[in-house]
Amino acid sequence: MASKDLNRAERAAVYQLLARLWAEEPGRLLEQLRAEPLCSAWKQLGGIVPDEDSDGTHSSLDEDYCRLFIGPKEHLPPIQSVWMSGELDTGVTSSLREFNTVIGFEGPWNFDIIPDHLGNELWAMGQILRKSIKLPLDENLADDLACQFFNGHLNWSADFLDAVIDRENDRFYGTVASVTQQFLRDEATHLEVPTQQEQQQSRNV
Amino acid sequence: MPQDDATTQDKTAYQTIDDLTEHQVSNTSESAIDTRRQFLKLGAAALVAFGATGCGSRGESPATPATGEGQSDQPDITGAKPSAVASPLDLKRWQKIRGLPYEEGDVHMPGVCKLPGPNAKRNWPDRDKYKDVEKIPGMCQLCSTVCGIIGYVKNGRIIKVEGNPNDPNSRGHLCARGQAALNHQYHPERLLYPLKRVGERGEGRWKRISWDEALDEIAEKLGDIRDSGHPEDFAFHQGRQRSKDAIKRFLDAFGTKTQLSHRSLCSGNRRAANLTFLWESDWDLNDVEHSKYILNFGSNAFEAHQGHVSFANRIQNGRFKNGAKLVTFDVRLSNTGGASDEWFAPFPGTDGAVALGIGHVILAEDLHDNEFITQWTNVSLEELREHYKDYTPEWAEKVSGVPASDIARIAREFAAAAPTCTTMCNRGSSAHLNGYYNDRAIQLLNALVGSVGKKGGWCWSPWSGVDPDMKTPTMPTSAKTHSVLEDPPEYPLANVWRRMRVGEIIYLYLLQGRAKLKAYMTYNLDSPLTWPEESLTQEVLSNEDLINFHVCINCFYNETAHYADIVLPWTTYLERWDLDARGSYNLRPYVGIRTPMVEPLGEARDIRDFFPDIAKRIGGGMEEAYDYGTTEDYMREWAKNVPENPETGKAGLDRLLEEGAWENTDRKPFYEPYVAEVSDEAMVGATIENETGVILKDGKGIGIIRGGKPVRGFLTPSRLFEVRSLFVQKIGRNEDCSDLIARSGAKASSRPASHAGHDVEIEQLPVWLPLPEHQNLANDELIMTSFKWNVHNHGRTMHLKWLAEIVHSNPAWMNPATAEKLALKDGDWIELTSYFSQMLDESAPHLHHGERDSDGRTVAGTMRVPIVTMPGIHPNAIAMSNSCGHTQYTNVAQAKKSRPGGDKIDGMDTGSYRDADWERNMWWQDGSSGDTSKWKQNTGNGWNQNTILPIAPDPVTGQQAFHSTVVKVVRLT
């Protein structure tokens, strides 16, 4: 358990960086991603940092984001309810709303993001970690909250991320998905939460 | 915390990563440790990057430092809003709710709705399912019937929708479409954000934009048009719409009258026929519940009629509680035909001939209602007999194929049941090139037997919508512009009483350069699927010279949205406000409410919400139309005349929000309105014409003397049921009808000057018009007809999985005898070649486009489809349902399984005429595991019949003749 209590700030930062990448078109976040030391750290994990378009904008990336995650067709909504139940706004959305009352959550987004959007969920996890930094180490409730939130609202995403990786390979969002996948697996280990695959195997047994 | 401190702490954190010890990750491998270390470096770097600079959302605004008890004093690394950081973790609350189960699905399937599977029943029946639910009334909008509904809302989610028993029209019934509301509301492919096109129009490339960006651009474009002095260059094109007031307010405030609709694709002929007789209402409300005999011509009321559930329910009450007989004439054995007491399949387009044959027998055998004819119609018995003289049952048999003996028998039965008998008709008889006359002949039967307006007879009401006691906040002055798209001069009855318009010609006229559109706003419209000549529609929609700017408002990305420049995500009917009602079969007005049962998902917005924003941006006085406050304020004002319920003490909007609907039971049902006495007060200052007995006041008819008393009569110029219509003849000839209109006092107009030179000869009396192209069909030619299923509307339900499971394909129906003649068997594939109407080729050359073949005929299109053989179709007809063949509108509608790894099933291959879904089954039914020998036939997502149906307006009213097209059949080997 001790390991759970360390590096909360760094982990929170990773969660919230990834949240930004999933929740909205990256916009000026890319400029920050190009700066050191973030750029090297990101690239070391296999991430890529796309160049600006010839007109100095990120329009092609905005279009990619829309095509992949907004639609209007053949897209892969980064929304938990869709991947767990094939519908929007299911019980997991209600669950997330409940968690949000505990976390005091409000995303910083420009758009009204669906509550159980992966971007929101990553952001919320970051909030949990950030807000628990100064709590006493023996405050099990915060760890419990983090574990349960992770298990309930981040452990679903493997299929989604695999799908993005399959579709985009080494394009920008393929690497975002890949980095996210690695991070969440690492976090699952760290938090001692069985992965989605392990849970499924366990159910099958 | 001060920035410097943050940076210091970041550096500290950064150092600790390199110090990550084996102890901290004792159960992990070296590579895992490396990975961990890399991520912590990434986190530290992010802290440096964002902690040092601050970063608002998308890098726009600075971060707000975090403070507060029990929380991190780390800087907000990516710029969360202050409220996101201001509160600590509420661990007390967490203690309370931890461990509560949340719903977990069992199938990981993106992009599609999940079937309720075995796992969903693990907790079935769930006795707590409806615990703590809030029941919220609303009105369905998955077809045109607008049945009252109740949404069961729990934790902000609708978990069930059922009929609202308070709705006086639908009486608590709800069809399969309505039950699928949940699929609609929570569909994973709903449009959630405004989109802006980034590629070529129709290319399907988009980016998300904010509402502000969208509305700014729309307002700029519309503002320029408004300032140009030609507001008519902005057209609003609606599909099914139930926010009439909101749309009218916007368009009138803008100043354009170019409001296009689909009415002529639906019900123009029936409406015109009714208006010709009545002038008061375009909508007959057959009092079937009290009938003894119901004579149905081509109406599929049990599946798809505009009054569907309300009407079907009353028909069955009439049959099983009142002993009514239901006789159906329809070229296809619909579910209505199948559930009738008798079904006859007349030759397509001959319903009117059958009706005339029935009329002949009624008159010839003195079965008519002499009193009604002499007192209440504008023809004498002798005139009628003369008119019907040649329409013998034998003639009708020769024309229609329906045995003369049956025609005569049915005539006798129908008349014997009078006055508790009624006809009913709809698109089966109407959607023909002779549909106007068909419907005139059918409806006239009611006058012959005197069932007009009688209890159990052929009725109507003046209340086609919301109770007129409901008054909206002041509306802007009506726009006065003219557009050939909205009022084409060639169709005399399209707009004289009601604005039925001629929707099917608009894309052709744009292509011909007869009109231009600088801005085009589509709303709940799927014209490439539902309009004739799909390819022409697509061609025009994709042409930026013909339509400069296209804004599409819809819940889903459909075939129309595909050709838009901006797509606005619309709320569902479960997320927005309306007062609404249909013409009630109770024959008195009511009002129901559509109310937001749940918050809109994503950034979906209703027109009531964003039209004011556009108006304010455009300015120039347009914004004054929206001075009413909030939408709820507007609704409260509109509903304020709903009286108090003495049991609850609630009135107005509060009453509607509780009960969902209110019917004005103080009003008597609208039976025999023509015999109502004119009051003494109304008679003051009135004059009576000696010759006719018509009572006039200020030049306007207010009644007629009958039996020595002043009575209301009909609202026609003669105050009689106008069997003979001088008006339609004069209108057809472009003559001034202002004197007739003034006498009537009804809402009507002469044709405008722009119609000059477009004369059409319209018969004063109902006749049957033979269609030249139907007279000598070649052996391989059939007449194509279409139909709707009981689980679909035309273009807006195939995305609903519960419904698509039931019907998702539309092979062509062919009579076995025809199939044998053409050497075809069940499941064979055919190629259909369709032709433009020969009749229209001569009478309406303005419609001609395309190349003629060696026979001088113009091919409209070709299509390859499989057939199913069944006796329930006339041997000269071939039928395909509509609703199918989507190329957009979600994966469900396209029968595509969108799955990671590209495991897709493509739709029809137009080159090879094979359809993967047809061969394999819809993917959700596919148990073949790739074994093609296990593939089954009879499924797929079907074909859009409008690929081959030509534009074919009835020359009188402009109604699209969906059922008159001749097709040539070729067997594919």
What does it look like?
The complex is a heterodimer of chains A (205) and B (973). The two termini of chain A are 28 Å apart. Chain A has one domain: TorD-like (Orthogonal Bundle). Chain A is an all-alpha fold and 205 residues long. Helices cover 62% and strands 0% of the residues of chain A. Chain B has 973 residues and is an alpha/beta fold. Chain B is built from 33 helices and 27 strands. Chain B has a seven-stranded mixed sheet with strand order 5-4-14-13-12-6-7, covered by helices on one side. In chain B, strands 22-26-23-25-24-27 form a six-stranded mixed β-barrel. In chain B, strands 10-9-8-11 form a four-stranded parallel sheet, sandwiched between helices. In chain B, helix 12 packs antiparallel against helix 15 and helix 12 packs across helix 16. Chain B is globular, with a radius of gyration of 31 Å. The chains are: A mainly alpha (205), B alpha/beta (973). Chains A and B meet through helix 1, helix 2, helix 3, helix 4 and helix 5 of A and helix 1, helix 2, helix 3, helix 4 and strand 5 of B.
CATH fold category name of the largest domain in chain B: Barwin-like endoglucanases
User: What is the CATH architecture annotation of chain A?
Assistant: Orthogonal Bundle
Low-pLDDT segments, ≥5 res of chain A: none
Biggest sheet layout of chain B = 7 strands, mixed
CATH superfamily of chain A: TorD-like
The chain-level structural class of chain A is mainly alpha
Overall geometric form of chain B: globular
The share of residues in extended strands of chain A comes to under 5%
Element-level helix/strand string of chain A: HHHHHHHHHHH
SSE inventory with pairings:
The complex is a heterodimer of chains A (205) and B (973).
Chain A (H helix, E strand, L loop, with lengths): L7 H16 L5 H6 L3 H7 L14 H12 L9 H6 L5 H13 L14 H14 L8 H14 L4 H11 L3 H20 L4 H9 L1
Helix pairs in contact in A: 1-7, 7-8, 9-10
Chain B lengths: L2 H16 L11 H24 L28 H5 L4 H7 L36 E6 L8 E7 L2 E7 L12 H4 L1 H5 L9 E3 L8 E3 L2 H17 L6 E5 L5 H11 L4 E2 L7 H11 L14 E5 L10 H15 L2 E5 L5 H4 L3 E3 L6 H14 L5 H7 L4 H8 L4 H8 L3 H14 L3 E5 L1 H4 L4 H15 L56 H6 L7 E5 L3 H4 L3 H8 L8 E5 L11 E4 L8 E3 L9 E5 L12 H12 L12 H8 L13 H8 L1 E3 L16 H4 L3 E2 L5 E4 L2 E7 L2 E3 L14 H7 L5 H7 L27 H4 L5 E7 L13 H4 L7 E3 L1 H6 L7 E7 L2 H6 L15 E11 L7 E5 L8 H5 L21 H5 L45 E6 L2
Helix pairs in contact in B: 1-2, 7-22, 8-22, 9-18, 12-14, 12-15, 12-16, 12-18, 15-16
